[in-house]
Design brief:
The structure holds two protein chains of two kinds.
Chain A lengths: L1 H28 L6 H9 L13 H9 L16 H18 L1
Helix pairs in contact in A: 2-3
Chain B lengths: L1 H13 L10 H6 L4 H30 L8 H23 L1 H7 L10 H12 L4 H30 L10 H16 L6
Helix pairs in contact in B: 1-7, 3-4, 3-6, 3-7, 4-5, 4-6, 6-7, 7-8
Classes of the chains: A mainly alpha, B mainly alpha.
Chain lengths: 101, 191
């Protein structure tokens, strides 16, 4: 009786373990270096991936924000209190970029 | 040999995954606005479908059946498909960033694409052997690409057509899809 429950669980865990290792290996082999600031901007966005801004997801929106192609106001579900940190981050980012040039 | 050809024809047209079985409607409507992204999505789905049905076939026949736990089918299949999509996503991101951008949110959504799970389960319930699984899945995947391609061309034309305001966008697309489905349902009589 106990074995009837344990066996499927073990099989499923085993399959999951093998697949997890495969994903890890493929992630290492095909690693793409990304601008870490994109990840930080995504953190400041709502992360709903709703697409209301016109971009396919929050990540693409973040990329456009950093290229100054989009305005934070495009993001419809963004709460009022989370708008200032995002604007400040972008301001600092653009200033840092200017100084580099 | 006749059986293989019949299987391929059934998968490609008569049992077309979108227009006869109504699976995978989300990418069908979502990514069919442009021809290039429709084709990219089609090939990504074909790739995931083919690998996942081969893996799930082997897992079902040699692991689940030998241990008499066939009822684990759905959950194991979903696990396999989800992991495969993750791998394909990492792969496409590295190999073709343009395609990755065009597919956007629809790429992770292949995970929940019922066409992929549907084909994996159909192969088991129709008792195909390994060759049959490969042929049927390839035919289904090509049928998916074929319909996506036709539909994306139709939608590109519709974009320039004077559509009444109430029908613009998704409504007219659904009307076109319905007409296509009626056409395709006639092919069912051949087999």
């Amino acid at each position: 009786m106990l074995w009837d429950i344990l066996l499927p669980a073990i099989i499923l865990a085993g399959i999951g373990f093998v697949l997890g290792i495969l994903i890890y290996v493929i992630g290492k082999v095909f690693y793409v270096e990304e601008d870490p600031s994109i990840e930080q901007v995504v953190e400041l966005l709502p992360r709903y991936n709703c697409g209301a801004c016109g971009y396919p997801g929050c990540k693409e929106m973040a990329g456009a924000l950093l290229k100054n192609e989009a305005k934070p106001a495009l993001c419809k579900p963004l709460k009022k209190e989370s708008l200032p940190p995002l604007e400040e981050y972008l301001k600092n980012y653009f200033e840092a970029k200017k100084q580099q040039q | 040999m006749d059986k293989i050809i019949a299987l391929a024809f059934a998968g490609f047209i008569a049992e077309n995954v979108i227009l006869s079985q109504f699976l995978g409607i989300c990418p069908f409507l979502g990514v069919s606005k442009k021809r290039s992204s429709a084709l990219g999505m089609g090939f990504a789905v074909l790739f995931v479908m083919l690998i996942s049905s081969m893996v799930t076939y082997v897992l079902y026949r040699y692991v689940l059946e030998t241990l008499n736990i066939e009822y684990m089918r759905t959950i194991v299949f979903i696990l396999v498909i989800a992991s495969l999509v993750q791998m394909v996503e990492t792969f496409i991101k590295k190999v073709s960033p343009a395609l990755y951008k065009a597919l956007g949110i629809y790429l992770p959504l292949i995970t929940t694409n019922c066409a992929v799970l549907g084909v994996a389960i159909l192969n088991i319930s129709k008792d195909h052997n390994f060759l049959g699984t490969v042929v049927y899945t390839t035919a289904i995947g090509l049928g998916f690409i074929f319909v996506m391609f036709i539909f994306s061309m139709l939608r590109e034309k519709i974009n320039n057509a004077p559509v009444p305001k109430a029908f613009q966008g998704i409504p007219i697309a659904l009307v076109v899809a319905a007409i296509l489905a009626i056409l395709f349902s006639r092919f069912g009589g051949i087999i």
